[in-house]
TrEMBL record:
It comes from the Eukaryota. InterPro entries: Cullin_repeat-like_dom_sf (IPR016159), Exo70 (IPR004140), Exo70_C (IPR046364). GO terms for biological process: exocytosis; protein transport. GO terms for molecular function: phosphatidylinositol-4,5-bisphosphate binding. Residues 11-370 form the Exocyst complex subunit Exo70 C-terminal domain. GO terms for cellular component: exocyst. It comes from Gossypium klotzschianum. It holds the Pfam family Exo70_C. This is Exocyst subunit Exo70 family protein. Belongs to the EXO70 family. Keywords: Exocytosis, Protein transport, Transport. Gene3D superfamilies: Exocyst complex component Exo70.
Length: 370
């Protein structure tokens, strides 16, 4: 059966199951109990005859869905089915308490088991799909990679099912395949550290994706651009965590650690991307510098600044907060050093430029406008 058709049937089932159990089957059981109160055997026989076949069909549907081809995008409908059946289990157990309706209870339990197995398989397949992602195309300007968007949207939705997932994985303890740094999960004694099994699973999935992004960053020929790519993508990750239930699952320590890492990536981009421009200015601004050396410093700075600017003009920082952070950080990194040199030697050179080649192309205020 095509997934679109099956999904339509699932939606219909989800909208009907609660009414079927809490109104129809419950009402039928109540009626049989009242009408045939003098005879337990007749009461049971009548209720079983009326309801058993329909109930078996109703609770057999999720089990049949669990047999469908397992792909990651189907997971959320499977979770919806599991949530519906588990949420009605106490009513099912009470309404179908007769021995002759034990098959209904067994069918509901089997559906939960099969759905749980399917969820676990799909999550493992999802992790495998992340690990096997082999796209070689770099994102223009170091922007957000499609893998980052897909994985984080997926995991954000998963976080909404944390209660159901905890139930499904209750008897399936998670062992991280490789040693993780303690800092990744936060200090064990900290209130903000990751502790629940589901939190660890989701944190692991994010880590698997981040490892793939490290490999994709290496595809950029410009090292500064690779760091900008990592900063952009990790910033997207932290924002998705902050804006979803992942914030409560992963905790404050996780967020703080990864937001610090974003700043480290941004700092590496700044240092490497603008090192040539900064390196063109004298280290000791107070030392006496010969006029020809002053000219040379201005020329080198002009060339290095324009080269870096023209190369990076097409690079992107989609997140406004990160963009502002980088702008402010860059201004603090470059402008004070250049301003000190400009104020010390710019006046003399400006006079010389009236009769020859201009050595000074930028004032400190000009740099702030780039």
């Amino acid at each position: 059966m095509e997934w679109e058709v099956l999904e339509f049937k699932i939606k219909n089932w989800l909208s009907a199951v609660k009414m079927a159990v809490k109104t129809l089957f419950y009402g039928e059981r109540l009626l049989c109990d009242q009408v045939f109160s003098v005879s337990a055997a007749i009461r049971e026989s009548c209720f079983t005859e009326i309801s058993k076949e329909g109930a078996l069909a109703l609770f057999g549907f999720p089990e049949n869905v669990a047999k469908c081809k397992k792909t990651p995008e189907k997971l959320f409908r499977i979770l919806d089915l599991y949530e519906a059946v588990s949420g009605l289990w106490s009513e099912v157990e009470s309404i179908f308490s007769f021995e002759s309706t034990s098959a209904v209870r067994a069918t509901a339990v089997n559906s939960l088991i099969k759905l749980g197995d399917t969820v676990r398989t799909m999550l493992m397949d999802f992790e495998t799909a992340i690990q096997k992602d082999s796209s070689k195309t770099t994102v223009p300007g170091g922007g957000i990679h499609p893998l980052t968007r897909y994985v984080m949207n997926y995991i954000s939705f998963l976080a909404d099912y944390c209660g159901i997932l905890s139930d499904i994985f209750a008897d399936w303890p998670f062992t991280v395949p490789s040693a993780l740094p303690e800092s990744y999960f936060g200090s064990p004694d900290s209130e903000g550290s990751i502790s629940s099994p589901i939190s660890v699973r989701l944190a692991w999935l994010i880590l698997v994706m981040l490892c793939k992004l490290d490999g994709k960053a290496a595809m950029y020929k410009d090292v500064p651009l690779s760091y900008l790519f990592l900063a952009n993508n990790l910033q997207y990750v932290t924002q998705k965590v902050r804006q979803s239930n992942l914030k409560f699952l992963l905790g404050d320590d996780w967020l703080i650690n990864h937001e610090l890492k974003v700043k480290q990536y941004a700092e590496n981009y700044e240092k490497i991307g603008w090192s040539k421009a900064l390196g063109s200015l004298p280290e000791n601004q107070t030392a006496e510098i010969p006029a020809d050396r002053v000219n040379d410093h201005f020329k080198k700075f002009n060339s290095a600044f324009e080269e870096a600017y023209m190369k990076q003009i097409s690079w992107v920082v989609p997140d406004p907060k990160l963009r502002d952070h980088i702008k402010i950080s860059m201004a603090r990194r470059i402008i004070p050093i250049y301003k000190e040199f400009y104020e010390a030697y710019g006046g003399v050179q400006m006079k010389k430029e009236m009769w020859g080649e201009p050595f000074i192309r930028f004032t400190p205020d000009d740099l702030g406008n780039y």
